[in-house]
Amino acid sequence: MLPIRLAVLPFIVWLFLHIFMQDPVLLAICTISAGMPVASMVAMGSAEYPRQHQAATIGVSVSTVVSLVTIPIMAALLQRTL
Q1: Interatomic CA distance for residues 30 and 24, integer angstroms
Q2: What value does the CA radius of gyration of the chain take, rounded to a whole number of Å?
Q3: Mean pLDDT (whole number) for 28-38
């Protein structure tokens, strides 16, 4: 699920918005925003439930670490379109 959230979803957003947007900077902002990691609010919201809290914390941590690789790659690819 994580590769879909951090890599495939931004590509789909780029494909869809590329049809409607002419401004490459706005297109890049929307695409990179779609590839941001899972918000930590998920982990905070699950604090009442021990099993879910641990899984949510791991998910937030992993998505943040993986986004350290995917966001610069997306930015480099989008820079070529500017």
Answers
A1: 10
A2: 15
A3: 91
